[in-house]
Amino acid sequence: MKEPIWTRERKAPPRETLSREQIVKTAMGILDSEGVTGLSMRKLAARLDAGATSLYWHVPTKDDLVDLLIDEVWGEIDVPEPELAGWRSGALLFGHSMRSALLRHPWLPEVMYTRPSLGPNAMSLGSRGLVLFEAGGFSDHDIDLAMSSVMSYVLGTVSAEVATREMVRKSGRSEETWVSEMMEQAQAVASEYPEMQKSVRRRTSLGLDSSLTENFVFGLDALLDGLATRVTK
Amino acid sequence: MKEPIWTRERKAPPRETLSREQIVKTAMGILDSEGVTGLSMRKLAARLDAGATSLYWHVPTKDDLVDLLIDEVWGEIDVPEPELAGWRSGALLFGHSMRSALLRHPWLPEVMYTRPSLGPNAMSLGSRGLVLFEAGGFSDHDIDLAMSSVMSYVLGTVSAEVATREMVRKSGRSEETWVSEMMEQAQAVASEYPEMQKSVRRRTSLGLDSSLTENFVFGLDALLDGLATRVTK
DNA sequence: CTAGTCACTCGCACACTGTACGACAAGCTC
DNA sequence: GAGCTTGTCGTACAGTGTGCGAGTGACTAG
After folding, report:
1. Which chain A residue is nearest to residue B214, measuring alpha carbons?
2. Where is the HTH tetR-type domain positioned along the sequence (chains A, B) (predicted)?
3. Which residues of chain A have a CB within 8 Å of the CB of B126?
4. Domains in chain A, ordered, with CATH?
5. HSE on the CB side for A44, CA within 13 Å?
């Protein structure tokens, strides 16, 4: 009579092997710190002390790997239960949670717009979002319109924010000197675009961080105000 | 006495040469039809009957070329003069114009979030937008907050829309069969995500196009409603 | 103990990318 | 003619994703 596997002892510790989780995790590290162009299969493999093509046993293609990484990010986003906060502050919280996830993983905008990406975490996120807006009293027809307008707003704003921060980073300057250089440029073309100059000056008075946060909050607030008038129940 | 140039005849027609405009134009064609991955310097050169490296005399790098292309798209977006329509319908028009430009050039989202891109058309667009909102009666402080929330909303929504369309295209199925396949998938995981199922069904009843347009309009309307309450003057 | 079958690793090779370099040519001004 | 500017392009290099097939360690059946 054969003894079942889980009681039987292993003769020797199992061979150390790569795992999909491990690959995803270190790929995430590379992506977060070096961006999309910094991630190559060879570099990833090297960091795992493995041959480049070994990865392909665990992951079909690089694109699939990126899909896994995207879904990982969706998994980091909170959606509060509606009974805890009400839909409005729930949506606000959701927006902020989504923003901070995107700021932690600034590579996401440049890859997410070319691919399906309907992994389990994305599904769960979408589902929980819909629950929130349903509880908020939107009509059946409006629930996912409301939900997806909030998601799109956050996505767009934070993508733009990430692009701005990227601009600063690439310039190699510090934040302050970058802002002041922008000011100079704005001065130079002031005659052509007087409005832009005012805008830059307005943003300069706050720091870059606060200015971007204010931007995000202002629009989200306005959008939620607009959505509030569409609550019917 | 030397005769001025414009009266002097050319001895021979000038040598045919590449031009930046020409390069930009055919690159735009490739990008629009084959997407970002379809654009390579060699392919672009081949389509111009030129050697690959000849392009580098007219354009410093491929990235710079893409920057030119992005600014070209910004140039296609209308912003109405405020006195023609008022800020609200002006903003609506602007949003639709921006949307259709992005739908014509669906490659834009995947490249715009990694780079500066403050070309002349972008500047002019921003400036005209600010004029519109200023005339709308927003406080000095709110003008560019309002403006950029609209831009971000449109950007985010249409980027997501483009991604959806890309999904359909890549699947190789027709629009209808794709939608019904989505329905099946939704049925399959219905127990886990009942909300998603409802959402998919709602979208299925309209066509894909109308559903996406409705989505866009709904959120933009809500956002503008919210912004309207912030008009002070 | 041997033979066989999985699960997994990895070197090589291929086609492709952006672009630096330097040789070359055509047209213009002296 | 000489010399300069403008422009073209072949070659080469370092890098990419990944298909293929050989190889290896751990396990099981006989």
Report:
1. A145
2. 17-77
3. 193, 195-196, 199
4. 20-73 (1.10.10.60), 78-229 (1.10.357.10)
5. 29
